[in-house]
Specification:
Layout lengths: L1 H34 L8 H15 L4 H28 L4 H17 L6 H17 L5 H31 L3
Helix pairs in contact: 1-2, 1-6, 2-6, 3-4, 3-5, 3-6, 4-5, 5-6
Length: 173
């Protein structure tokens, strides 16, 4: 009975620890990055939330699988950031434009034969457009750059935490 309980509790605790550490580190990493820019500092918690969401969504059972998912997230995020910069340089943010832009980002991913980038690209576009809506003074390049950096922060932290916790568990005693 004790061993069965132990076999269920410890792996569950390990996964919960991964997610908690990733959330904490991604939040503070992105929060302090966004706070460094005076005219975006009051939106730092929202950028930190985006990094946390990315980190949590990237986390897999192994660091290798997490690294693969992180790569997909980062490259899809780059597509989303690029199409957002192009759009915002020409058009103002509005709900219909956001929907069309999400569709355009997904189309680009599909056309490049990278359907695995579609979700990240679409979500990154949505976040960039949301930031443009709540902070219209934010230059498109800075907005997309910060949001993409938050994608990288969440992704890299997820890989590092999963890898470090896995190394600690597998070390010889």
């Amino acid at each position: 009975m004790y061993t069965e309980l132990q076999n269920r509790i410890f792996p569950s605790f390990r996964v919960a620890l991964h997610y908690s550490l990733i959330a904490l580190l991604a939040y503070f990493g992105a929060y302090y990055l966004t706070s460094a820019f005076n005219f975006t500092s009051h939106f730092a918690p929202v950028g930190a939330l985006w990094a946390m969401i990315v980190g949590i969504s990237v986390t897999q059972q192994t660091w290798q699988a997490t690294a693969v998912k992180a790569r997909t997230q980062i490259l899809g995020g780059a597509v989303g950031a690029i199409v957002s910069i192009v759009y915002l340089a020409v058009f103002p943010v509005n709900p219909f434009g956001m929907v069309a832009l999400i569709g355009s980002a997904v189309f680009v991913c599909q056309a490049l034969d990278r359907p695995d980038y579609s979700m990240s690209a679409g979500l990154t576009v949505a976040v960039i457009m949301f930031f443009s809506l709540i902070n219209p003074e934010l230059p498109p390049l800075l907005n997309a750059g910060l949001r993409f950096t938050e994608v990288v922060i969440g992704s890299v932290i997820a890989v590092l935490v999963v890898q470090l916790v896995s190394l600690a568990e597998n070390r010889p005693e």
